[in-house]
Design goal:
By secondary structure, this protein is an alpha/beta fold. Helices cover 48% and strands 15% of the residues. The strands form four sheets. A three-stranded antiparallel β-sheet has the order 3-10-4, with helices on both faces. Helix 6 links the parallel strand 6 and strand 7. The protein starts with a helix and ends with a helix. It comes from Aminobacter anthyllidis. Keywords: Signal. One of its GO terms (cellular component) is ATP-binding cassette (ABC) transporter complex.
Length: 334
């Protein structure tokens, strides 16, 4: 009798363990490894580790971070259906491949990772914006060139050029023509993306004027508190001409809002609906993610460390993405 009772107890214990594991697997939806692309810039790397932590600790998924970059990741998702998730895929950069993925049906857009999309434009520091409320849009620059005058070239404002070879270079040069700024502004060469970043740092640290092109969300926007100047709504025909170095009559238009997707495989959506539900809600405000990236840049932190900082300091954002019990598990793991 004792032997029978012991056997039954052992069977029940095994059932409990198996049941617990089954519940964990059901919570994630799959026991298969879920691969997440970690791309080479800070925001994408950070978001990869944010995704990993939530899936691994919150949902009990088997998660693997894999190296990636915009073009190779998009190509791999199209050809192989791998990786399963790209938390920050710049669709506008790989539009042709993205259209093929959607047509093939193996990848879908779970959501837009940045609340305001990817932003390109002309930016000024916050202290310039506060001291000169009359400068709100790019159209205000012509009459206020003195604000951006540099002592090395008196009589002209200094506009910091887009780095040579970048797509924004031709666009910016044409916008200068469209706005009639050639007579009152010097388009000052920056040489490279690193040089442009260093020039912004130098000007802001000295509380000197800066006007130039940049993009966001990035650590530069958050760290140096840059404000984007208003531009008219995107006009496709006008913008197409702006991208042409031989554009005969450049006209003013704004950049299109960059489409930056949380991309995922449809197979993951089918086998892990709870994960798909989380991905559909995953979105960060541009200002806040720029602040997070600025902290990372200041502290020379790894993407994983920046992700931890985000979890600890921006709880009201990420806890909206997941059920309360999942959020509790992530917090406990921190």
């Amino acid at each position: 009798m004792k032997l029978k009772t012991s056997i039954l107890a052992g069977v029940c214990l095994a059932c409990m363990v198996l049941g617990s594991n089954a519940a964990k697997a059901t919570e994630c939806g799959t026991k298969d490894p879920i691969t997440i692309a970690e791309m080479t810039w800070l925001s994408a790397g950070t978001l990869a580790y944010v995704t990993k932590e939530i899936l691994a600790e919150g949902y009990g998924c088997n998660v693997e971070i894999v190296p990636g970059d915009t073009v190779p990741t998009a190509s791999s998702m199209l050809a192989k259906g791998e990786p399963d998730i790209a938390p920050e895929l710049w669709v506008s950069t790989v539009k042709s491949t993205w259209d093929q993925m959607l047509a093939k049906g193996t990848v879908y857009k779970a959501g837009d990772i940045f609340a305001s999309g990817g932003q390109e434009g002309w930016w000024i520091p916050d202290y310039i914006a506060e001291a000169h409320p009359e400068i709100r849009s790019v159209s205000d620059l012509k009459d206020n060139w003195q604000v951006f005058e540099d002592a090395s070239n008196p009589g002209k404002g200094r506009f910091y050029a887009c780095p040579p070879g970048w797509g924004c270079e031709i666009i910016t040069n044409n916008l200068v023509k469209a706005l009639g700024l050639e007579a009152t502004y010097e388009v000052y060469p920056t040489g490279s993306g690193a040089n442009l970043k260093a020039m912004i740092a130098r000007q802001v640290s000295r509380k000197k004027p800066f006007i130039g092109w940049y993009w966001g969300p990035t650590e530069v926007i958050g760290k140096y508190k840059l404000k984007v100047l208003e531009m008219p709504a995107y006009d496709q025909a006008k913008f197409t001409c702006l991208t042409d170095a031989k554009c005969e009559k450049p006209e003013l238009t704004g950049w299109a809002v960059g489409e930056v997707a949380v991309a995922a495989t449809t197979s993951l959506k089918d086998k892990a609906p709870a994960v798909a539900e989380f991905l559909s809600k995953m979105q960060v405000p541009n200002i806040e993610i720029s602040e997070v990236l600025a902290w990372g840049d200041d502290n020379k932190a790894s993407p994983e460390e920046v992700a931890t900082y985000f979890f600890k300091n921006y709880e009201p954002i990420w806890t909206k993405w997941v059920p309360a019990d999942v959020a509790s598990k992530v917090k406990a793991a921190l």
